[in-house]
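PROTEIN–LIGAND DATA SHEET

This sheet pairs a single protein chain with one bound small molecule, pyridoxal-5'-phosphate, given as SMILES. Inputs appear in the order they were entered. The predicted three-dimensional arrangement of chain and ligand is reported afterwards as a token string under its own label.
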Amino acid sequence: MIPLAVPEIRGNEWKYVKECLDTNWVSSVGSYVDRFEQMVAARAGTKYAVATVNGTAALHIALILAGVDADDEVLVSSLTFIAPANAIRYVGAWPVFIDAEPHYWQLDPDQVVDFLEKGCDWDGTTLRNRRTGRRIKALLPVHILGHPADLDPMLAVAGKYSIPVIEDATEGLGALYRGRSVGGIGHMGCFSFNGNKILTTGGGGMLVTNDAAWAARAKYLTTQAKDDPIEYVHNAIGYNYRLTNVLAALGCAQMEQLDAFAAAKRRTAKRYRASLASVPGIQLPQEAVWAFSTYWMYTVLIDEKRSRMSSRELLRELAGRKIQARPLWQPIHRSSAHPGPGYSCPNADAICARALSLPCSVGLTDSDQDRVIEAISSLLGS
Ligand SMILES: Cc1ncc(COP(=O)(O)O)c(C=O)c1O
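PREDICTION REPORTED AS:
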């Protein structure tokens, strides 16, 4: 089986993890946690980074820091993995689902601006959704598939209404928006290092920010809100969300290879583009002029009307040829876990119906990629 996306362990991973085991520094403090945080902060271009047990935990903490409370609302992409919407519910707030734009499949900045300007009321201090009367407390754009969302218009409108922007950059490590690292552009950013991400710690996450108070509070909340180093005194409800030193050691070794990993992904994308562009009915991912995409996931759209088969039929045919492909996520406005007031996100629906992600592991060999290309070309008839 040619897998969709598997980890690449080829650097100092064994060495650093062995050092943790040899020195007995295996738990949630240790030099690798500090080093991993410094490496990610340096990469994101932020002053601070706080490691977490996973990306969802980082999002949860970011929402708490942003002051999002029960019955507030947060604008979020519909076309994304479900974790950011779930994190919004963890704090008792409600997601407002915004559609994707059709070019790069990211959160549509025009619709964000439109909703905030025309669908909300501003009394000089508070912005309220006119329909629900609830306060809009944060904007949570998700950079999907390794390509940045168009942040500038969103940052401008969020600034106008003093709404913090939390970037879900869990799929975006290594990607640039107008030359700046995603995750480090908004008020806070969150990364994930789960097994299918561009680099992995098995499971892990990171919250980045330039705000010293938020960073300190994030460290406090992720370590059970311990107020006394010796006595068990806690003055807030905290979480056991810290990353272990062993996993941070893996993360340091992986971070050393981030540029090489991104280069490998971009090379894979280039080879797919050169070979699949002429296949009838296939739409390949685009890179905006303002973007540097890592092509973390290489996702294509299959237009059933112009192609011999649908994306799901192609998925099954590829599986029969021992090639793993995957659809994108059910747009979250359609999830029964998030019943809403009947959001309309037609672009997210259309992209989801046609999307298929192709094998794109960092270590994908040319011959395996050629096998994928040949299978798709013969199945779709070029
Ligand atoms: C867009 C998005 N947000 C959040 C997450 C959550 O990250 P984690 O799995 O590390 O909790 C993921 C990935 O898993 C993701 O793809």
